[in-house]
Amino acid sequence: MFHQKKVIIFDMDGTLIDSVGIWNAVDKELIARLGGETLPEENIQQRRDELLRTFSHTQDAYLAYCNFLAQTYNATLSKEEIRAMRYAIAQHYLKNVIDFKPNAHTLLHYLKEQGYQLVIASTTSQNNLNIYIHENNAMRQKVDFEKTFSLILGREVVRKIKPHPEVHYVIMQELKAEPHECLVVEDSLVGVEAAHNAGIEVITIFDTYAKNDEAELRKRSLGYFEDFETLLLHVKEELGKKLKI
Predict the structure, then answer these.
(1) What pTM, to 2 d.p., does this model score?
(2) How far apart are CA 191 and CA 197, in angstroms?
(3) 1 inside domain
């Protein structure tokens, strides 16, 4: 999987960090503030994922999502005001709750030591990424983002978000890499589709909130791993064998 690769591209939410459930909680509170009905978080996530896929071709899919919420709940607030409210609700979680998945930082350090170029390609905003990088103490103690990653790309970098492959085209152009020299690490179908659409091989890390898609993720991925500890063991075994040849 890692043989002859030089660029490893990581998704952020649900892949490197435990965050999908937190965004479900944020949206649940947001909907309540807009006067909407109480929905199970699983339903909130499913609807959000479907809408973001639908809006992925737009200039700002999350603004379109907030516009949907405004229309659905007859809100007096504008879509911009709803988006601002969403991020205000999220601030505590972003700074103090979200953390790397177990052993994710250990894998990052190991891959960096082996000479790989590491990249974050996320559909989250650059503002949120900056909070992780500069204000989330738990994450900052584990990873020096500026030294570890060659590129850290939020959704503002591209006009079309995943499953469109634009972000991967940007990465390959910036790092002068070909698709066969890259490997994507994802947790969701939309991310896997983006990798395939760019002609890049992809492996998947299990995430609780993508459990319903597990069969399809296994089918469409070069490898499927239950956690980062398992992936790290696989990487060390694979690279160890390569070194012995």
Answers:
(1) 0.86
(2) 10
(3) no
